[in-house]
Amino acid sequence: MRYGYFDDKTREYVITRPDTPLPWFNYLGCEEYFGLISHTAGGYSFYKDARLRRLIRYRYNNAPMDIGGRYIYLRDKATGTYWSPTWMPVRRQLDTFTCRHGIGTTTIASTFVGISAEVLYFVPMGQNLEIWRLRVKNLRDTPANLMSFASVEFCLWDANDDATNFQRNYNVGEVEVLDNVIYHKTEYRERRNHFAYFTSSAPMKAFDTQRENFLGVFNGWDSPQAVAKGACSNSIAHGWAPVGVIQSELILAPGEEREVIFLLGYMENPNEEKFEDQAKQVINKSRALPLIKQFTQAGEVQSALENLHHYWDALFSRFQVTTPDEHANRMINIWNAYQCMVTFNMSRSASGFETGIGRGMGFRDSTQDLFGFVHMVPERARQRLLDIAATQLETGGAYHQYQPLTKRGNDAVGSNFNDDPLWLILSVCAYIKETGDRGVLDELVSYDSKPGSEQPLYEHLQRAIQYILERTGPHGLPLIGRADWNDCLNLNCFSSEPGESFQTTTGKDGKVAESVFIGGMLVLAAHEMAELADYLGNKKDVDFYNKVAADMEPIVTSHGWDGEWFRRAYDDYGNPVGSATCKEGQIFIEPQGMCVMAGIGLKDGKAEKALQSVEKRLATEHGIVVNNPGYTQYYLHLGEISSYPPGYKENGSVFCHTNPWIMISETKLGHGDKAFDYYKRICPSVREAISEVHRTEPYVYAQTIAGKEAPTKGEAKNSWLTGTAAWNFVAITQYILGIRPTFTGLSVQPVFPESWKEVTASRLFRDVKYDIHIQRVGPGNAVETFVEGRKIETPVIPLPPPGTACVKVEVKVGSPK
User: Fold this and answer.
1) Peptide bond before 474: cis, by omega within 30 degrees of 0?
2) Considering the entire predicted model, what is its pTM?
3) Catalytic pick from 448, 487, 541, 551?
């Protein structure tokens, strides 16, 4: 069942009914000011940090869902009837409804009682504000006298404190209304450096800034008392719950259309000021007024909208493909690339499932996300790498998360997730392959953000490897620490009572848990370091890192091989996890993908066997599950993974993030049809046809899909912010299509389905446009490569002479019959 359709020409998903299975979200903003917006105008906005600079309140886990947002009410003065053109929050049955979620824009339109209304939401480039453009048209044969009420509920900045510290917050709310602008200045007397504002291009007929005056004590957002009676009360908030409500009058002749522009913005004064008088203590509004004047002009709004479109045009044009599959085209060219940019901005901090409070940027998360956006914004990717590396610990370990506003490691979450540091190596290498920027390795970067601890980025990478080498267990495998990629596989850590902090145990024999997954990852990272060292001409390091990989590989194949697949780990008692000898959790996806991607088992048949076991034991119509059988009870020695029911989250769901590892692994064995089959099983565009089962947005990847042991198998959760976005982009573009950056040039080595006859691509690589035409001439994956008509003997296209604008590449795939 579908609730809308893809409009590929306009790059929008068009939702045609408001009652989607869950709120379907989009993101506004791509620099420092951001917003989440649902298809019915729910969501919130923030500046840089979703916890510390929250502008709008939002209520997660509420009933009804999706409460809090950018709400506009229309009221017919003649009848007293009122409604929301965005359906929520009034939920009146509208005559027509559409929501067009676009790239950085959302447009919600409806008709009701002869009135057409459309609201466009977006954040202009270079600005810390959002625009709501309301267009109202009278479709009646008689004049319409309407009142509009545009509303936001202000958050008191720190979203965690706002939701918990009521003894303080009910007393500190402050607003000011001056010259058609509502200023939210809570904390201004304390911090004196930031405020929010809400204004309109139309004159205020009235306003409210105290929520109780607008809603009433016992009313909800679906029935505000001020809207019901048709008048705000000009209330000024003193504590309690400050809001911004702007009431305007719209008198429309038959067929007439009016446009009203609303602005919600954030302003920060450059320096803390000392206030000498009450007038200055209110707010320094002088810096906001020019922006308000500019963006309440219709022409300026249209120009800003066009600039935003041009920005995204430029990003997407860096990589465009045409394949025989419409779903692959749609995802690569538009939605997968877009989602990669959103994960760049958000990491895992703010979505319909992440509150923006408990998590900042993730060390592992953000380094992996880079794989998907580095080709679009290489200069910003560079800065992201330096920011992440600065939170690394001097041991070579890493904080698991850091706050984007402060760029400090998150002590509450801590470190000791032992795979984390290795992801820095993979992401830095991906960046240099894309850009050729060796100079980034010489950048001086601190450890733990401590002044005076700066060392070249290259040393940070070396310490990451050393961190693993210094922490190996009785089998010689890397210690897992608190967890590896699966945060919930806690083989050393447990909590005896709810709420207690994790404690480390060394097990009954004094051993510590080991990770086969990290063993495979160390081999992969060491190979990357050896390639990087070779690119730098550092023979000593080439030899060292090749030896690291050569030493670890036989340990993995000896102690990590279970006979038909790679084991997952060894627990704190020395017992295997992910083995046929286990009662539950006999096989896991992670080591199969990581070990084969690292090249382990390719020559002796272990890789082939492991992937056959994946297909037999883990693959389902909805994707590949994490483990099987799922754990049916809680096991203290396994930790949080067994706290989930079978088929959900880390315990047997389709954890989509790891599925691309299997896709990539299948291409390494030459299985293009199998790799693409797995790609389509979790592809959002494909799953649109079962939206009533899938439930989350059909245009972006979700983190998990309920597995085969779950009663709700096929149901997705935790959409938008997931490493699935970057890894699927890598799997389809770099391995199935085979267009892959290397240190020395662009490689084109496809492993796509046998039925595909032709693929074209346009790829900007190191400021040169590559026009690529791939043609299948026979079965198999052998390639012949022609550059500007001349055959080359390698699939890696040499870098052209400086000043070259475009390179034409012809690739023939397969062996001619």
Assistant:
1) no
2) 0.95
3) 487
